[in-house]
Amino acid sequence: MAAIGFIGLGNMGGPMALNLVKAGHKLTVFDLSKDAVAKLVEAGASAASTAADVVKGSEFVVTMLPAGAHVKSVYLGEDGLLAAAGKGTLFIDSSTIDVPSAREVIAAAEEAGMLMVDAPVSGGVGGAEAGTLTFMVGGEALAFEKAKPVLDVMGKNIFHAGQAGNGQVAKVCNNMILGISMIGVCEAFNLGEKLGLDAQTLFDISSTASGQCWSMTSYCPVPGPVPAAPSNRNYQPGFSAGMMLKDLRLAQEAATGVRAATPLGGAAEQLYTLMEAAGADSLDFSGIIRLIQGKLGK
């Protein structure tokens, strides 16, 4: 079993770290939340007093942080992880961040004699808890192969996306597709309702026709057709509208940088910004149907 450090024990990081403990790895954890740390310690992990202390004796270090600025702050500088780690340490950053920041930190790690991959995830809290996440991994082939056994504990589908930063590229492209498709499904169900077609009938037809997509068949935004979907628990989030907005903003930032036309991605960002402005960004991202129906706050 490996000695692994884990920094960032939030809604996603906590369950991911817990799966590493359950698999028998020696885990050292750090988070600003004492309650989050205590939960992992109770499960068998050890607590570090600082983020830098996590790397002491760790062969692998996994980070799950909110944004690029946090990742750079934790990794770089005199008190950063790279300064504290031993040569050959493998870092796995599963944060969803901007591509330039991911590439900058990986380049710094390699210059310091370490291995590093960016490995953002898809699958939501449910996937994190079940250990069925999809990892999109960017970095050198050697680093990917060394990271894969650790990722296999936390995920079901592990993909090497190519060079450093390409994991982030895959993540924002995937979630731009997801955000756009969810809005399309919501608009269709809203239109069907207004024209007198009940949701179950539309679902039965479209889920077996050319309109079929994951946003409909696995995560249907109207209550009823898919019992496990957040629409049946008042849009309590598996993946919040706020997190979707973060990813759509990253996609638009990346598109601007390379002058790629993403008009539907831009429109999706604007609609989720309206969710944020209405104070509804804590709902599941499928809750955008309430915005489309004019039912936010009702």
**What is the distance, rounded to the nearest whole angstrom, between the alpha carbons of the first and last residues?**
52 Å
Order of helices and strands: EHEHEEHHEHEEHEHEHHHHHH
How would you state the average pLDDT, rounded?
Answer: 96
Main beta sheet, described?
Answer: 6 strands, parallel
| Range of helix content | 40-55%
Strand order of the largest sheet: 3-2-1-4-5-6
Oligomer: single chain
Shape: globular
Please characterize this protein's 3D structure.
By secondary structure, the protein is of the alpha/beta class. About 50% of the residues lie in helices and about 15% in strands. The strands form 2 sheets. Strands 3-2-1-4-5-6 form a 6-stranded parallel β-sheet, with helices on both faces. It has a 3-stranded mixed β-sheet with strand order 7-8-9. β5 (about 90-95), α5 and β6 (about 115-120) form a beta-alpha-beta unit.
Give the topology.
Blueprint: E1 3-7, H1 13-22, E2 26-30, H2 34-43, E3 46-47, E4 60-63, H3 68-75, H4 81-84, E5 90-93, H5 99-111, E6 115-118, E7 121-122, H6 124-130, E8 133-138, H7 141-154, E9 155-162, H8 166-194, H9 199-206, H10 214-217, H11 241-258, H12 263-277, H13 288-293
Parallel strand pairs: 1-2, 1-4, 2-3, 4-5, 5-6, 8-9
Antiparallel strand pairs: 7-8
Helix pairs in contact: 1-6, 3-5, 8-11, 8-12, 11-12
Task: Give me some keywords for this one.
six-stranded parallel sheet; 9 strands; globular; 13% strand; 298 residues; three-stranded mixed sheet; alpha/beta
Can you describe this structure in just a few lines?
With 298 residues, the protein is α/β, with parallel strands linked by helices.
